[in-house]
Design a protein that fits this description.
By secondary structure, the protein is mainly alpha-helical. It is built from three helices and three strands. The chain has a single domain, classed as Winged helix-like DNA-binding domain superfamily/Winged helix DNA-binding domain (Arc Repressor Mutant, subunit A, Orthogonal Bundle).
């Protein structure tokens, strides 16, 4: 291969790599930044609430807490509270009085019934 051919091939490869890296950076860079910002906002807005939910559900008694109580303590709406509960590893159950209850999956797994016979103190 002559010096001219090597120079042309090197220029072509360098130019192609430059175009590809620019396209990748211009597409993925903003997406990664947006995801990073969303993660920071999620931790700032919901981190304390998630920790509080997990702490409440990890207490020895009761194993199951009503959605009403969890929502009241965290200051969240129904759907927002349910989303956070799922994110911390909780599952929903139906309590004896028909109320919606939640418990950590580690403590009240899926092998247990979704409807609670006993009336857990809240």
């Amino acid at each position: 291969m002559s010096e001219l051919e090597a120079a042309l091939l090197g220029g072509f490869i360098g130019g192609a790599l430059g175009v590809v890296s620019t396209l990748v950076a211009s597409y993925f860079g903003p997406r990664w930044l947006e995801q990073w910002r969303a993660d920071i906002k999620e931790e700032h807005d919901y981190g304390p609430r998630k920790r509080l939910l997990k702490q409440m559900l990890a207490e020895p008694n009761p194993q199951i807490r009503s959605l009403e109580r969890l929502r009241h303590v965290t200051g969240t709406a129904d759907e927002e509270c349910r989303r956070l509960l799922i994110e911390v590893g909780a599952r929903g159950v139906k309590m004896r009085d028909g109320a919606e209850g939640w418990a950590l999956i580690d403590r009240y797994g899926f092998e247990r019934p979704p409807e609670v016979d006993e009336d857990p103190a809240d």
